[in-house]
Amino acid sequence: QQQQQQQDQQHQHQQHQHRQPLADNNKPPQRWWAPAASGAVAGIVHRFVVCPLDVVKIRLQLQAEPVGWTSSGSKYRGALHCLSTVVREEGVLALWKGHVPGQGLSIVYGSVQFAVIDVLRRNVKFFLAQRGYGRGNSGVVASSAAGDNRERSTAATVAAVDFVCGGTAGVLATLASYPMDLLRTRLAGQGQGDLRLYSGLFDAARKIHNADGARGFYRGLAPSLLGIFPSVGFHFAYYALCRRALGAIGESSSLLRNVTDSAGAGLVSGMLAKLTMFPLDTVKKRLQIQGFEDARVHFGEVRRYGGVVECIRGIIEHEGVRGLFKGLWPAMVKAGPSSAVIFVVYEEARRRFDGNRDNQ
Predict the structure, then answer these.
(1) How many whole angstroms from its chain centre is CA 112?
(2) What is the pLDDT of residue 3?
(3) Which end of the chain offers a freer environment for a tag, N or C, measured as fewer CB atoms within 10 Å?
(4) What is the enclosing helix (H) or strand (E) of 134?
């Protein structure tokens, strides 16, 4: 009878472990709102810092004429020329055109993205833990089978988990924030004076709705969704791999080490992810300004496209493959630092909200 009671207690203990395979009694409980709040804070800081580069990138992406210092007939001949032209013709504040909807985009996107990926990661870890896996040194998947202390998680496994979770989070965040993205593009892409079609955010929203209805706020959504899953997936996967590599150099719990690791991994992962998926971003921007031609006449030739495939074909036919990479330089300059800012601010905000809990 005593043996039976011991077996029952052991069975109950095992069931409890299966229900909470990733619990760590040494850490304070997670606050459910922390991922969303941290993502929103990261989005606010990121948007203010990178907005000027975003305006330059958008202007170059929307230009049908060649981009190059020998292209005398083009409105903008390069990133620096675009920057100086915008400041000269429209003033310094023009570099923050579309900043209000951009902030709305960043807050909604950041909060939804990090909240969703946090939930997905926890469910994936729970699923794997029920099948004999738990938290390893990488923070994602490692063997916990009895009598086997050998770590079986690999860099590919870590990257795969973050790729799928990150990609799914990116899709849901895009659906939630896309109207703000379109408004930001319209406001950043219009000129000054008589060429200014929209007087502000609400005026733009009203005119777009009057002209195209609710569908008008989702122009270019197809290439966005087509590219967002792999783009965000690669971003988080690259970040996980970079943090893993940096962690292999040596571990430290100091604030400086945490910040430098987050910044370094964010910088590299942001640039790699942007380079991987940049052509689809250009296609999205071109489709977002369809029906917006009157405000674009001052910037050069205006072309219409019937859809994603026609847009890609038209850009390659008239501008060459390089046309798909217009604005890449400012995008890369923006992507690295902005990714670093996002991850540094997110992780530090998350530590504060969760009481210095380790979020890796």
Answers:
(1) 11
(2) 55
(3) N
(4) strand 133-134
Rounded CA-CA distance 12/32 in Å is: 27
Mean pLDDT by 10 residues, the chain (360 residues): 55 46 45 89 89 85 79 82 91 85 87 94 82 48 36 68 93 92 80 72 89 87 84 92 80 76 92 88 81 64 81 90 86 86 92 69
Are the C-beta atoms of residues 196 and 135 closer than 8 Å to each other?
no
pTM of this prediction? 0.69
Neighbours of 142 (CB within 10 A): 20
Look at the block and give the residue holding tokens 């200014």. Answer: 196
The alpha carbons of the chain give a radius of gyration, in whole angstroms, of: 24
β-partners of residue 143 are 133
Q: Give the Å distances, CA to CA, from 35 to 109, 241, 360.
A: 12, 21, 12
Indicate the Cα dihedral angle 106, 360, 130, 152, nearest 10°.
Answer: 130
Closest CA to 358 of 20, 24, 19, 21: 24
Q: Which residues neighbour 219 within 8 Å (Cβ) at sequence distance 6 or greater?
A: 182, 212, 287, 288, 290, 291
Q: What is the 3-state secondary structure (H, E, C) of 49-82?
A: HHHHHHHHHHHHHHCCCCCCCCCCCCCCCCHHHH
Give the whole-angstrom CA distance, residue 274 versus residue 282: 11
pLDDT at 147: 35
